[in-house]
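sry for the spam today, last one i promise. struct tokens for design, 402 residues
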């Protein structure tokens, strides 16, 4: 029986042409590590470890001062296999490629692109400590400028790879609040004609509805640092209302604990921003041991705060408890990474098969086709295999909205 898709290679490239333009976040982040997985098929869960940059304190004077070399790494794990499947009957076999694209491929691969972006944006929001604004509050005209300051203070490159992704409602609010600040005529025209920001304030702006909505934990009271000299990725707190919760994504600051420059380790004068990485239950006495990011490092080559928090220092939780909120994300390309990995091509009863080459610089899509004699249908299956990694979350900023 002849294949319903006269050229499965053509059909697969059609799916690629639909998938890639509809990935906003996936296209914006780093994708340079996919080749590290090699050319063979990899099982879900396979991981590589990416080396992070070395930092040095330096010395003054002629006397040598050797510093330790530390191979810090971050994981990139291939976690998700996702695809779309459909069948075409003999009656539909007369479809040309344009009809096939519009009727079947486009809806299916917009769904795939949305899934890839939703996974990535949720990962990014839940691993980015930095923030501007307040949960549940409309962004102000200072929101984007404040996000830029945070990126600058964390050494995000000031190049063309800064991105701003926001949902439609937030885009409209920011566009209204900042409209008097733009004077580039081409961008003003785009904003007026299409209702989109385009390129402005040092970012490529992208409207996407794939950003998550989250809810702050069920917390209250007057939280404080429980114990002096705490460092690392766990922080003991007290003073919360009894038997509440902290949610992953809750953020806070600590008085007297400031961000420092990566090179000089000099305080920027901006309070360090922290993220709760794992949901936690607050005890009946109002205490909790919270997993946080970044880890508090008060001395040495990788110092990231001016000093460890003082015992009894009152913690400022960002936003009230039980508040639902939307978010945007400002980031540099190097904050996160995405890898697609080719899947194996099965043998046996599959009539036709094709996969985008893994070294093509494109998303490797596997496409399979098989005729079902019992139903007189041609089954069409497509898959992508991918995973995200966090490289430098300090080069991203969550924008709180309502």
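last one done:
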């Amino acid at each position: 029986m002849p294949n319903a898709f006269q050229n499965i290679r053509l059909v697969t490239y059609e799916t690629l042409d639909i998938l890639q333009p509809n990935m906003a976040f996936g296209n914006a982040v780093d994708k340079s590590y996919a080749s590290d997985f090699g050319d063979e098929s990899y099982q879900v869960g396979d991981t590589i470890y990416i080396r992070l940059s070395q930092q040095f304190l330096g010395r003054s004077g002629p006397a040598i001062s050797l510093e330790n070399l530390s191979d810090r790494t971050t994981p990139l794990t291939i976690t998700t296999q996702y695809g779309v499947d459909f069948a075409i009957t003999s009656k539909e076999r007369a479809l040309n490629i344009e009809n096939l694209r519009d009727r079947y491929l486009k809806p299916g691969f917009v769904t795939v692109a949305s899934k890839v972006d939703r996974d990535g944006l949720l990962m990014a929001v839940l691993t980015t400590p930095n923030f501007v604004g307040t949960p549940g509050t409309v962004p102000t005209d200072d929101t984007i400028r404040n996000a830029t300051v945070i990126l600058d203070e964390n050494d995000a490159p000031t190049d063309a790879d800064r991105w701003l992704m926001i949902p439609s409602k937030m885009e409209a609010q920011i566009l209204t609040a900042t409209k008097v600040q733009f004077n580039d005529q081409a961008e003003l025209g785009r904003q007026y004609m299409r209702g989109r920001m385009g390129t402005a304030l040092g970012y490529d702006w992208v409207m996407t509805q794939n950003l998550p909505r989250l809810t702050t934990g069920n917390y209250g009271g007057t939280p404080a640092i429980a114990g002096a000299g705490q460092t690392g990725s766990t922080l003991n707190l007290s003073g919360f209302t009894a038997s509440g919760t902290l949610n992953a994504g809750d953020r806070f600051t600590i008085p007297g604990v400031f961000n420092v420059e990566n090179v000089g380790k000099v305080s920027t004068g901006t309070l360090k921003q922290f993220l709760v990485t794992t949901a936690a239950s607050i005890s009946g006495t109002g205490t909790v041991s919270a997993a946080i990011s970044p880890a508090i490092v008060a001395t040495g080559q990788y110092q990231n705060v001016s000093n460890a928090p003082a015992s009894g220092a009152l913690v400022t939780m960002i936003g009230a408890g039980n508040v639902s909120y939307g978010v945007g994300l400002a980031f540099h390309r190097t904050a996160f990474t995405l890898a697609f990995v080719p899947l194996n091509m099965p043998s046996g009863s599959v009539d036709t098969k094709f996969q985008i080459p893994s070294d093509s610089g494109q998303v490797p899509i596997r496409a399979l086709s098989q005729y079902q004699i019992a139903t007189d249908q041609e089954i069409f299956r497509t898959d992508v295999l991918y995973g995200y990694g966090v490289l430098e979350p300090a080069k991203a900023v969550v924008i709180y909205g309502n």
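The CA atoms of residues 153 and 261 lie 7 Å apart. ok im logging off now
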